[in-house]
Amino acid sequence: MLPVSALAEDAAAEDSEQERSKRADAIIVTASRSLSQPDLPTATPVQVLSGDELAHRRQGGLGETLAGLPGVHLDNFGGGASRPVIRGQTVPRIEILTDGANLFDVSSVSPDHAITTEPLLLDGIEVLRGPAAARYGGNAMNGAINLIDSKVPKAVPEGGLSGATEVRYGTGDEEKTVAGRVTAGLGQFAIHAEGSRRKADDYNVPDAFGSDELKDSFAESSSYSVGASWITEKGYIGAAYTRQDSEYGLPGHSHINGVCHTHGADLHCAAHDEFDDPFGSSDDHTAYIKLRSERVDVRADYEDLLPGFEHVRLRGSYTDYKHDEIDGPALFSHYTNEVWDGRVELTHKPLLGFTGTLGVQYTDGTFGGINVNDLHEPPPTALAGFVGNPHYVTENIGVFLSERRSFGAVDVEIAARKDWRDIDVPFTDYVISPHLQSAIDSYDARNGEGAFRRMREESFRTANPSASHDPFSASLAMTWQIGNGYSAALSLARTERAPNVRELYAYGNNLASNSYEVGLSQTQRASSTFPEARTDVMETAKSINLTFRKTGGPLEFEVGLFHQDIDDYIFARLIETEVETGVAHNFLLYTAADASFTGIDGQVSYQFTPQSRLTVFGDYVGTKLKSEDDNLPRIPPGRLGARYEHSAGPLTGDLEYYHTFAQDKVASYETRTGGYDMLNATLSYRLDIGDDRGVEFYIRGTNLLNELAFAHTSFVKDQSPLRGRSIAFGMRQQF
């Protein structure tokens, strides 16, 4: 087993002795227990990335860090934004969590938006599926990714002080990174501080791409957090403030299609009459995002606090997220997301043989930014009506229950969640330019007092209807402990997911994905030939998962088969592709159609000696779009690979190779993506300096074959290939 990373060891030092023993052996494995809730067994696999594997593999984005786990691919957008793709789907069908609480950003509404986490400061990452994810609702249809951190201390460190530092340098993008953390104990109180700084230039790509660097793939970020807890024998309560700043380029971005507009069902990309080019300049500027996220977390975990309950868990947060999208000198878009969220979970003591958790969650959020690409233009001089960009106010109440019981060799889990979600779009400012007032007064005189405003209100409501959804999700799982480490698990689930803001309200150009998009509620606004506008669409998935597992002994394996039938699957259907400007622009209409996903993923490992192990892994997902003459877009191709690990005292190393196959089954506006080979290797040396202190030096090489590789899951795959050959040098220290 590889030694635990310095940062992870520091986090473990903050937990109880029992917690440390449970977490120390969690490397890149699949397990039946969660890192964040080790007493909660799950029938379906919990993939865990922590320890040295996390430290060596992490990149600037979450998608890049997780890519390579069985069943996990990435949707990349240069060096600053990457989203994980699990079994063929990414956010909003994957819920991103931070220590069991929802992580609120805007990554689900556009692929160029980063997930606001800093992998450098994480202790572990776990991928939950089945009943373990059902408690997080319909957005966890394909799973939940839980980010484990230590910003709110759970225990007083032994000796009163613990910490860790790390520095690293990468050749492929001139990456320079430093990270550190420290936790101090004062009686029953623990104080924690951590921070990181990362700067990377445009990353190298193979010469076959036409250049040796990917223009505008640079990324720069900084993050820090301060937290404190009051710790008793029964548990802790604490809070933390976290701020993350990031600035990163958008390769493949083009503003030349900002002029694109529609005439009914026809997309037109030339300026005329009132349809102007909002940029009116060349397409040579660097486009980038400047992001800031501030968040306050309140966390508490207590044992035996209330009669009849083993455990009480509290998660509360306030998130203030904003980012600017900038093209050269022009600020053309501004996104915001302000969210209050609270979650309480009560785990009851055994009752009729069952143990389980009852919970409630309340969320209130205000989001803004979609359909805006012209903030750099001066406001018009003639204003009459509601002006400014709408904000979308979401209120959600959710209740959930999970129960589990063993019947001899069979463990049974059930979970259910019910949500009540309302989206309202408040009126913006009502403004009338002085020189238009007399004309409006004349209109009101003919049609009744306030007629003009009522007409504008009706127009606003038609364009911005409210939406209400009451999704319900439930799952049942059974695990048969066959004996000698063998087990088989069957999981059944019915999951309902409500559409997100972009799927409902998109109406205009999305320059990041080179598309003009029309949401479900905007269809008739775009063209009378399109389907009726809807806000009541509910995506409903019926899923079955079958998992075979063997633990203990030299041979271990875990293989999962899955099938999903999804009614009213929401996707962007192509209407036409316009090439007037020389850059293709897709006219996309969000559509609900029936679809299915079927696949297999897993890994098999053999421990030859206590020092050496070979693992074979792979995944495949196939899809079918039942009611449309097309294929679903951005579905990852199959993959097969192997990894060999060896240790010799303080020296450890691994060699990993996998082949990603070509993707030939493409949507009407996609092109075939060729397969590629990927070779990665790591070598590390750990030096113990006594008193639980240690220093590790490591070297990790990625894409050592320097293959030109494209991710079919990316919106800008042809403009944004994966990284070329790169070597990262790092040093980690624990104290």
TrEMBL record:
<dbReference type="InterPro" id="IPR000531">
    <property type="entry name" value="Beta-barrel_TonB"/>
</dbReference>
<keyword id="KW-0813">Transport</keyword>
<dbReference type="GO" id="GO:0009279">
    <property type="term" value="C:cell outer membrane"/>
</dbReference>
<dbReference type="GO" id="GO:0044718">
    <property type="term" value="P:siderophore transmembrane transport"/>
</dbReference>
<dbReference type="InterPro" id="IPR037066">
    <property type="entry name" value="Plug_dom_sf"/>
</dbReference>
<dbReference type="Pfam" id="PF07715">
    <property type="entry name" value="Plug"/>
</dbReference>
<feature type="compositionally biased region" description="Low complexity">
    <location>
        <begin position="1"/>
        <end position="10"/>
    </location>
</feature>
<protein>
    <submittedName>
        <fullName>TonB-dependent receptor</fullName>
    </submittedName>
</protein>
<feature type="domain" description="TonB-dependent receptor plug">
    <location>
        <begin position="42"/>
        <end position="144"/>
    </location>
</feature>
<dbReference type="InterPro" id="IPR012910">
    <property type="entry name" value="Plug_dom"/>
</dbReference>
<keyword id="KW-0472">Membrane</keyword>
<keyword id="KW-0675">Receptor</keyword>
<dbReference type="GO" id="GO:0015344">
    <property type="term" value="F:siderophore uptake transmembrane transporter activity"/>
</dbReference>
<keyword id="KW-1134">Transmembrane beta strand</keyword>
<keyword id="KW-0798">TonB box</keyword>
<feature type="region of interest" description="Disordered">
    <location>
        <begin position="1"/>
        <end position="22"/>
    </location>
</feature>
<dbReference type="InterPro" id="IPR036942">
    <property type="entry name" value="Beta-barrel_TonB_sf"/>
</dbReference>
<dbReference type="Pfam" id="PF00593">
    <property type="entry name" value="TonB_dep_Rec_b-barrel"/>
</dbReference>
<keyword id="KW-0998">Cell outer membrane</keyword>
<feature type="domain" description="TonB-dependent receptor-like beta-barrel">
    <location>
        <begin position="280"/>
        <end position="704"/>
    </location>
</feature>
<comment type="similarity">
    <text>Belongs to the TonB-dependent receptor family.</text>
</comment>
<dbReference type="InterPro" id="IPR039426">
    <property type="entry name" value="TonB-dep_rcpt-like"/>
</dbReference>
<keyword id="KW-0812">Transmembrane</keyword>
